[in-house]
Amino acid sequence: MTETSNHKESGNSVPDSKDQMVTGSAWMTAGSIFSRILGAIYIIPWRVWFGTYFFLGNALYGKGYNIYSFFLIAAIAGIPSAIAKQVAHYNAMNEYGVGFRLYKHGFVLAAITGLVSAGLLYFGAPLFDGGDPHVIPVLHSLAWAVLIIPIMSLSRGFFQGYQQMAPSAISQFVEQLARVLYMLGSAFVIMQVLHGSWITAVSQSTFAAFIGALAGTLTLGWYYLKNRSNFNYLVENSNNEIVVPAKQLYQEILQQALPFIVLGAGITIFQLIDQYTFFNFMRGTGITSSVMLNNLFAMFSVNANKLIMIIVSLSSALAITVVPLLSEAYTRNDRKDISSQLTNSVLLFEFVMIPSSLGMAAVAHPLNIMFYGTSHKELAISILAFSAFVAIMLGLFSVTSAIMQGVSQNKRAVRYFAVGTIIKLVLQWPCIHYLGVFGPLVSTTLGFLVANFLIIHWLNQSFGIDFPSIAKKTNGILAFSLIMCGVAYVLVKLLSRIFGMFMVVDSFWGSFVVLLFAVGIAGYVYVYLVLHTRLADTVLGDRTSRLRTMLHIK
Length: 554
Description:
Shape: globular
Number of helices: 20
Number of domains: 1
Order of helices and strands: HHHHHHHHHHHHHHHHHHHH
Distance between the termini: 34 Å
Radius of gyration: 23 Å
Structural class: mainly alpha
Number of strands: 0
Largest sheet: none
């Protein structure tokens, strides 16, 4: 691995945190974005094979996955992020041996929490079905994934503690690839060959999470064996001045891990609030059809959410990268480096997230048609476009909560998230009552807005964030993003008219062609503007000069 922490031959060396953040984010972003794209693309053939059962199947899939996600986060118990943080902490002190022992003890904890959580999900499935018995077999199939994923996630955290992001990113991609292949294979056989039950097909599609986890774990094992000699070298050449008893190691892991459960489950908790309140609150508006309610739930909580999580994963990648880097700076008590990293984190988030969200809103029409067809077309497109803006708040929380964890303010971050959750709960009924299917999205936005504001306010007071510098660059990012958004929107309208003369635009291939041209041209406009004005240089560093040369931009 080229990223291995060989630069840490002494505890006093201070790497270029901005360069590490950009490099690490690039790896994690690549892994996340390709995994999310795979996780969205599968829906196209899956939709065709399910036919008229698609919305019902997708709603059931979403219900099961929301519950599973919460149990999975509880099973992981924040241990991977805690391990990454603590391993980075001890590595910064040149105590690699202690970090290695942390990983071994964390492995035991991950195995135990996985076993307990999988058992609760499997045997307690009837308690979590929310009145829909079809959810039970889906939860049974997902319990197997809960058994193994904590160990896989723990190993990713260990590599991240060494600033090695490639193993995590590649294993993430392999995991998703294996999952999608099994999903599509089982769905095709059950629905098209055997003409079986759509509920069975959904259950097998969710069981694919276990298949993917197995593939991802094996990938990490291969990377560990490949790097074992380097790890052994670092351990043998540690200072070995610190002796930490096993009991203390467990305490450190749990103290760091428990707040990660709540923060890591933040988005999932909001989705569960929607799942258990939406149906009853919507019935109060006069919509009583179970089919219609499931269709509406699928549109905002599953369909749109699946696509916006592609761009939210960009910020999640940054969040994973920033925790060990901030932990190292915090260990050295380097407040200047912490302040610099806070500023860099905010800028990097804006640089990627703002154009991604605005761009997705601009191309919502062909994007939704390509993935979900023309059923409830106008409403589904509006929900997707609105959700693209909601994604900014979700992504920002991923980053800000990770920053709080990096500077050991886990409990404070949990308190701020609790305030945001209360806002969500209080506003849920009036938002749904007056705004219908858009209500949950509005209450989610406001809840995360409050949580993000509280966190950023505290960080600025404690460490200082260079807001004047951020504001100037933000204006540029926002201006170029709006230009790109306008170009994309106009292209969608124009190309739809042009291609509409000789093909059906509101079809998979018609939407694909429009989307390809609109995203390609508008995306290039944004890249050209940020490279030509040198705005990208202030965010990404000198590496942009090579990209400028490749694209022949002066």
